Amino acid sequence: MNATPVNRVYLFGTCLVDVFHPRAGMAAVRLLEREGIFVDFPPEQTCCGQPPYNSGYDEQARDVARQVVERFSDPIPVIVPSGSCAGMLRHHYPSLLADDPLANAAQDLAARTYELHEFLNRVLKIRLEDQGAPVRVAMHTACSARREMGVRDDGLALLGQLKHVEVCEPENAEACCGFGGTFAVKMSEVSAAMASDKCGAIRATGARQLLSSDCGCLMNIDGMLRKQGQDLNGEHLAEFIWKRTGGEPL
Amino acid sequence: MSGFSTHPDHDFDVRIHDALGNAELRESFHGAMHFLRDKRRTQFPDPNALEALRDRGAAIRDRALARLPDLLEQLERNCTRNGIQVHWAETAEEANTLITGLVNAAQGKRIVKGKSMATEEIGLNSAFEAAGFTCLESDMGEYIVQQANETPSHIIMPAIHRNKASIARQFHTQIPETPYTEDVDELIGTGRRVLRRAFAEADVGISGVNFAVAETGTLCLVENEGNGRMSTTVPDMHIAVMGIEKVIERLADLPDLLRLLTRSATGQAVTTYLNLISSPRKQDECDGPRQVHLVLLDNGRSRIYADRQLRETLRCIRCGACMNHCPVYERLGGHAYGTVYPGPIGQVVMPQLHGLDRAGKLTQACSLNGACGEACPVRIPLPDLIRRLRHEGVTQDTGSPVKGHGRQRKPAEALTWKIWSLIHRTPWLYSLTTHLATRARKLLPPWPRAWTNHRAPLEPAERSFREMMEQRGRDPGGKQ
Ligand code: SF4
Fold first, then answer.
1. Is residue B296 helix, strand or coil?
2. Coil, helix or strand for B113?
3. From CA A89, how far away is CA B313, in angstroms rounded?
4. In what order do the strands lie in the sheet with B110-113?
5. Which of A39, A151, B82, B371 could cysteine-pair with B325, CB 3.0–4.6 Å?
6. What is the DSSP string of B300-333?
7. Partner residues linked to B89 by β-bridges
8. CA distance A197 to A228
9. Selected residue of B328, B329, B441, B455 to mutate for chain A interface (largest A Cβ count, 10 A)
10. How far is B189 from chain A (nearest CA, A)?
11. DSSP characters for B433-464?
12. What DSSP assignment string belongs to A140-170?
């Protein structure tokens, strides 16, 4: 992957981006295209299968995972604008499909899956020119992006290239925001206690905007901040970067 | 008899609700967990060194587990040769009967006990009570919770849920001639006074075992207060109780494990006391017990051992780091789990020991954020195991050794995932669903109350991402 320059990639849009944050998906496409890359978006894609997988419904997760493996079969990188979905493809498909005829294909897919910002920063090594006004933002890195994918530094490195953006990581940045997919509903009280601490820490940064590369966390934190009557304008990192670097409206 | 008399799943929600509503409890756990995390962090300043040490620790435990039956036999042989009498107990009941039998045979009445999770697990104190013995916990934290008729809320720091003032009140009312004071040194002095007398009078001392070395027949005991040393040397009889997984191959394996244990547990570079017990009192020695017994406890462990993935559970060295790093444990404290082992390791061990029908719900108290797995010094993949147990809990015939599988399955939930799967593997159906979700936003079913009680509902976007992409595909001018 590193020796030959990449000129074509797949984009795995994720279901939350699809329904709630389509502009984050568009921003990902634009950022990649701006680097001269052709973005292949298989139109029949749906979800990575993480929700049933995390709930223990492996069979249902497997049915969906198989299709992802089949639809993203060309030997090109698969870019995912979400740490947890990327983690699902990279770290869980191989074991989920271990006894399946698609086992080898799943291994292969795992090896060429990247979280968007990891790909932009480490593989493409993109350079960013900030064109926005000075602003203070709070960055929330999802647990899966931080631990499973190890891409926290990539998001921060990209933000670090933006001259007029002051980035603060909230106190206890490594703490979970309490989303956890169905956890937020099944264990709603504990989840709310976690989200509430997270919101407090984010507010304490004095930031004007909340950024994350994971739509699940954004839904959770932003949802609580809005319920509390505080609008920090949660935005996906890709969309923020695209707008700051002169990208036209999405 | 088991470590808890109730069903840990039973009223789990109520206990969660109560714990979250207890501001004082939340405050102390929040403070204590952050303190412990910071302390641990300063003990591992070099991340590469930490990772290398974790690799070695996991490898030592794996090597030992790979040869577990052999090593246990070797341990038995070498202990016996050293004069330690070895006993095997398949279940908690068997262990309790055996231990009370030993105490009876020695005509012992007064017992002191060092801190031991294995004896909590089998509910030894209640068995002693039933047999008419008095058994005093000699670890200060355990002593405090025992006196208050409570159970430990943490595996390393049993009284971590208690604050100074409440302990001061307890000592003042329960220990005769104790003036009320919140001075920590004085409080410890009071406890020590009581315990000293108990040590001097005890006939039997009970302890756990942190590691048992097969090669030499040595029992290793790690502690900070010296009570472990007192309990295992002053009384005439010492009974050590250990889970069968605690055996290690060689003495040379010990230093790495100790490094990991003390730093992960309390953020200490070294432990205050390290006891290496290899035999009863020898002829010309002036102290030590005249009899040493070792009880090897199975209590479901060989069942766990039979499964390759679940076997990783048995690498655990009971350091408590997983609970110290768990955001759910931090909010709830240990009692909410209703189990002997709380937090992530408890969520993995308890359903395996007691069955998913009784303790399967515990696996839900996890956002799969991964902090426990990152903290575990012997690299137990706790999130993977929690997820695996969730799977076992909702699947009828897994053929696995875990008991009660399928018992957490709820028909409505199972149906939801079936429909979900159908939608997500039928592209036209998925497109239709997202199309409707975006177009008919106002007509969507309401968000669950569990969500909107604390969060504003989210609105789907006006156009889905796939529609935007389709639009671009039809309109090549849209592409650069
Ligand atoms: S699971 Fe790991 S972190 Fe938790 S108590 Fe055991 S060894 Fe320590």
1. strand
2. strand
3. 25
4. B84-89, B291-297, B237-243, B204-207, B110-113, B134-137
5. B371
6. THHHHHTSTTGGGGGG-----HHHHT-HHHHHH-
7. B297
8. 13
9. B455
10. 37
11. HHHHHHHTGGGSPPPPHHHHTTSPPPPPPSS-
12. E--HIIIIIS--HHHHHHHHHT-TTEEEEPP
Cα A154 from Cα A237, distance rounded (Å): 11
Question: Closest approach of chain A CAs to the CA of B117, in angstroms?
Answer: 27
Distance, in Å, from the CA atom of B223 to the CA atom of B208, rounded to the nearest integer, reads: 11
Instruction: Please provide the DSSP assignment of B144-212 as one string.
Output: HHHHTT---SSSS-TTTT--HHHHHHHHHHHSTT------HHHHHHHHHHHHHHHHHH-SEEEE--SEE
- pLDDT tens, chain B, 480 aa long: 344 446 899 999 999 999 999 999 999 999 999 999 999 999 999 999 999 999 999 999 999 999 999 999 999 999 999 999 999 999 999 999 999 999 999 999 999 999 999 999 999 999 999 999 999 999 999 999 999 999 999 999 999 999 999 999 999 999 999 999 999 999 999 999 999 999 999 999 999 999 999 999 999 999 999 999 999 999 999 999 999 999 999 999 999 999 999 999 999 999 999 999 999 999 999 999 999 999 999 999 999 999 999 999 999 999 999 999 999 999 999 999 999 999 999 999 999 999 999 999 999 999 999 999 999 999 999 999 999 999 999 998 888 999 999 999 999 999 999 999 999 999 999 999 999 989 887 777 788 999 999 999 988 999 999 999 999 887 654 444
Nearest by CB: B420 against A25, A51, A224: A51
Q: Chain A residue closest to B362 (CA)?
A: A187
8 Å CB contact of B421 and A176: no
Tell me how far the alpha carbon of residue B79 is from its chain's centroid: 28
pTM for the whole thing?
Answer: 0.95
> CB-side exposure of A235: number of CA atoms within 13 Å?
17
Nearest CB neighbour to A227, from listed B366, B456, B463: B456
Show residues of chain B in contact with A18, CB under 8 Å: 434, 464-466
Give the one of B368, B427, B458 whose C-beta lies nearest to A46's C-beta. Answer: B427
B330 vs A193: CA distance, rounded Å? 10
Tell me the count of A-B CB pairs closer than 8 A. 186
CA pair distance A59, B398, nearest whole angstrom? 12
Nearest CB partner across the interface for A22, out of B327, B417, B461? B461
Give the A window 68-107 contacts with B, CB below 8 Å: none
Pocket test for ligand 1, best of B304, B316, B323, B389 (most atoms within 8 A of CB): B316
- Ligand 1 binding residues, C-beta < 6 A: B 316-322, 345, 375-378, 380
Q: Nearest residue of B to residue A20 by CA position?
A: B460
Helix/strand/coil for A40: strand
Dihedrals φ, ψ of A168, to 5°? -120, 135
Return the residue of A nearest to B438 by Cα. Answer: A19
Helices B343-354, B382-394: axis angle to 10 degrees equals 40
Q: Which of A157, A69, A151 is nearest to A112 (CA)?
A: A69
ipTM greater than 0.90: yes
Query: Which residues have a Cβ under 8 Å from the Cβ of B35 and sit 6 or more positions away?
Result: none
